């Protein structure tokens, strides 16, 4: 589970490693909230195209695009549930930095921070259950803000 830059990934919760982030409901409708869902079997609404759009290294900025609906992972608002939206790629709410946080056991763990002031990806209330909301929350770098990146095809 290593993030190697642009590619297709399943983004897995560090705290609840049986779950990944998912455009909820399996639909192709934009505006779907993003929640935790079992990573097996891996479905298209849990696959994300990570596309480099600016910079390099720790300052690289990415779009994270849902393969089922084509929407950008969006930091909808500070302390709000993230969603999949169509917006201009220049909008900072759809731009993310992905930073290596630590090595845990044999895996690399990352934080995913919005370029906007809307914070970082966060499993609400440190939840690990199916249906836990994935928020854009103030940056705190707790266990519920850490993610694994599994290459997917």
Please give a structural write-up.
It is a single chain. The chain is mainly beta. The protein has one domain: Trefoil (Trefoil (Acidic Fibroblast Growth Factor, subunit A)). Helix content is about 0%, strand content about 45%. It has no helices and 13 strands. The strands form 5 sheets. It has a 4-stranded antiparallel sheet, with no helix packed on it. The protein has a 3-stranded antiparallel sheet with strand order 7-12-11, with no helix packed on it. A hairpin with a 6-residue loop joins β4 (about 50-55) and β5. It is globular. The mean pLDDT is about 90. It comes from Rosellinia necatrix (White root-rot fungus). InterPro entries: Ricin_B-like_lectins, Ricin_B_lectin.
Named CATH topology: Trefoil (Acidic Fibroblast Growth Factor, subunit A)
In spatial order, strands of the major sheet run 5-4-1-13
Let me know the average pLDDT: 92
Query: What is the distance, rounded to the nearest whole angstrom, between the alpha carbons of the first and last residues?
Result: 14 Å
Number of domains: 1
State the helix count.
Answer: 0
> What is the alpha-carbon Rg in Å?
13 Å
Any low-confidence stretches, pLDDT <50, length ≥5?
none
Strand content: 35-45%
CATH class: Mainly Beta
